[in-house]
Each structure stands twice: as C-alpha cells, then as structure tokens.
Amino acid sequence: METVSFVSAAVSVAGALASVALAGVFEWRRRRSDRELARRDRMRRYREPLLQAAATLQARLGNAVRMLTDQPVTEVAPGSPRQEEYNRYESLYRFAAYQGWVHILFREVYFLDMGSRRRNRRLISLLVAVQGAIAGHDDHGRTGVLLGGEQRLVGELMVASEDTEEARLRCRGYADFRARLAEDPEYARPFQPVLDFIDGLGEDTEGKIRRLVLVHNALIDLIDFLDRRKVWVEGPREKLESEPSRGASMSVRRVVPDVQTDAMEENRDFYGLLGLEEAMDLGWVVTLASPSNPTAQLILMTEDRTAPVTPDISVEVDDVDAVYAAVRERGSEIVVPLRDEEWGVRRFFVKDPDGRVVNVLGHR
Q1: How many Å is the Cα radius of gyration of the chain?
Q2: What is the pLDDT of residue 48?
Q3: Pseudo-torsion of CA 194, 196, 202, 207, nearest 10°?
Q4: Helix or strand or coil: residue 99?
Q5: How crowded is residue 291: how many other Cβ atoms within 10 Å of its Cβ?
Q6: What is each CA distance from 141 to 131, 148, 244, 270, 299, in whole angstroms?
Q7: Alpha-carbon distance 67 to 316, whole Å?
Q8: pLDDT-based confidence at 252, cuts 50/70/90?
C-alpha cells in the first residue's frame, strides 16, 4: 500500500511539474507572439510613412539633379512664378517631412525592430548615413544643408499629435506646414537654411549637385533596405552618378596621413596646439582638421576596426570605383577589396610601390 501511495504521489508531482512546464512554454509562446504582433504594428505604423517620406524626397532630389544637368524633366508651367514657388516649398516640405518621421521614429520606439540585431544596426547606420550626407560630413559642411542638430530641430517642429484617444504622433500636413511658415517667423527660422540652399542651386552648381547626389543615393540605400521586395515604392530606384556634371578624369579631394597611436587623447591635445580641431570622432578613429583649410587634415586611430591592417595614408577621390578598376588593371596589390562601410564611405586598401598601405575612399 505504501508503495502504491508513493508511486501515486510521484505521478501526481510529475504531472504537476509537467503542467507547470507546459504552462511556462505556452506563456513564453504567448509573450513571443505578443511581441511579434507589437513589432509588426510598429513596422506598419512607422516604417511605411518613413519609407514614403524617403521615397518622395529622393524623387525630388533626382529631378533637381536632372534639371541642373540639363536633362529632361516634366514641369508645370516651366519658369513661371507658380512653378518656382512650388519647387521651393514643396521641396522644403518633402525634406521636412522626412526629418519629421525620423524624429517620430526615434522618439516613439528609438528604432524599428527589424527582426534581428544585425538588421537593426543596419537601419541605424543607414539613417546616420542620410544625416551625414545632408550635413556635408564629407567636406566638413562646406556644401552641407543642415547640421545634425539642426535636422533634429526641423524634425521636432514637424511633429503633431493625432486627435484621438491614443494621441499618436504624426507628421504635419502640407497645408498646416505652409500656414505655420507664413504666420510664425520663429517657427519658420530653422527652415530658412534649406530654402537658402534651394535658392542658391545656381551658385557653386558642381558642389550643390554633388550634395544632392550624395543625399539621393543615401536615401536609395535606405529605401532598398525598408522595401527589399519593391512592393511599397513605385518608380525607378537607380543611384545617380557621383559627379554627373564632371568629365571622365579622376579627381582627388584630399590626402590625409594616418597616424596609429595608443595615446589618442594626448595626441589630440598636442595637435590641437598646432591649430587642428576635431572634425570626426568614431572612438577608434579621430579626424582633426584646420578650421581655415578643412582639407588640411590628420587622422589618428588606435586600429582600423573593419580592416586587418592600419593604413599609412588615406586618399579621398571622386570616383572610388574607377580608381579601384585602374589599380587592379595595373596589377597593384589589393589589401582590402572595395566595399561599403557603415559610416558612409566606400573604400579599399592598396599597397604603393614601397609597400605603404593606402586607404582609397569615396563618400556614398
């Protein structure tokens, strides 16, 4: 009898443990399902508006480049005051709406959960690349439109709340936007640099074209990532040539010595005494530049985080693909093949005849 009672008790305990385990499994599955539904809801709520804002902006930038390079563009009443006003304010709105949805994205969910850490990091790097292209990080703001903080301010000013119980954030509509610009000078002031850029497209045309192309192509990368199956955005997605207005000859933008160091702060302070100021800081690499001559630069790095060796010199060129093809045709030793980096450059490493490692790059 005692044996039967013991077996019965053991079976009861085992059954209870199994029930607890199954309940835990079912609860885990329920929570995972809830998280996936919440992720899909965020994707629907934020990805699609961001995608459409990026697509409409890149389409406008593509048209602007075609206009500036004398390519055919369909216009309403070309050259008329109506067309000029439309070009100014509708272009401004597309730019501001994109910034608005980026601001909402970071404010509401920090970033979209794309289903994996790798894809989440890729999304952040693409958003940063667009911001850098707009700010002009590649030429230290010489042809930039708005600095990073100014972009965030524009995005904040474009945000409104829906008239619902949930009060979800949304981007201002065009009519509301135009009315606020006309009625409130303080509201309009942060947008003025963008209008100045639009109005000045006829000046320093080559530099402005290059800026438009860089932003356009960075947006294409973002659009391709958000709409991999090409379902949500219609129309062409081809990237523009890096310099549509120039000839076929290669051009060097800057040459910078790379200094490997384990004393980053000490070297930063030392070269600061010589008049160099920080232009970029990724932690493992810092670029110092002259305020009066931005292309006079020095790079300090502890190591190259994405390459097996540290370069001795960096050379920025207009067309890195063409240079890569040329050095391969020559038979030079390629140390790191041509590839895109997360911080917005496309580069490769090659050895010169003396064995020095040259980092050849171009901004995307």
Answers
A1: 27
A2: 86
A3: -60
A4: helix
A5: 11
A6: 12, 11, 21, 25, 18
A7: 28
A8: confident
**Segment 81-100, tens digit of pLDDT:** 877 888 889 999 999 999 99
Contact call for residues 313 and 257 (beta carbons, < 8 A):
yes
Residue 239 is given by DSSP the state P
The amino acid sitting at 321 is: D
Instruction: Express each pLDDT in 18-54 by its tens digit.
Output: 666 666 666 666 666 555 555 555 656 778 899 999 9
Write the DSSP symbol of residue 278.
E
C-alpha–C-alpha distance, residues 234 and 50, integer Å: 15
DSSP letter for each residue of 4-48: HHHHHHHHHHHHHHHHHHHHHHHHHHHHHHHHHHHHHHHIIIIIH
pLDDT tier at 73, thresholds 50, 70, 90: low
Q: Give percent of the chain with pLDDT exceeding 70.
A: 79
Query: Residue 214: what are its φ and ψ, rounded to 5°?
Result: -65, -45
- Residue showing tokens 């390519």: 71
Residue 213 neighbours by CB distance under 10 Å: 23
Give the C-alpha separation, 148 to 227, whole Å: 25
Tell me the sheet residues that pair with 351: 357
Q: Region 220-231: what's the mean pLDDT?
A: 86
Inter-axis angle of helices 205-226 and 117-135, to 10 degrees?
Answer: 160
Predicted model pTM: 0.59
Strands 297-301 and 252-260: parallel
- Can you list the positions of beta strands (E) in 81-168? 159-161
Q: Is the confidence at residue 333, as pLDDT, over 80?
A: yes
Q: Are 362 and 217 in contact (CB under 8 A)?
A: no
Write down the pLDDT at residue 61. Answer: 92
Comparing C-alpha atoms, which of 351, 259, 350 is closest to residue 302? 259
User: Are 316 and 252 spatial neighbours (Cβ–Cβ below 8 Å)?
Assistant: yes
Q: How many Å from the N-terminal Cα to the C-terminal Cα in the chain?
A: 82
**The length of the chain, given as a count of residues:** 364
Mean pLDDT (the chain) is 81
What phi and psi values does residue 129 have, to the nearest 5 degrees?
A: -65, -40
Q: Are 342 and 299 in contact (CB under 8 A)?
A: no
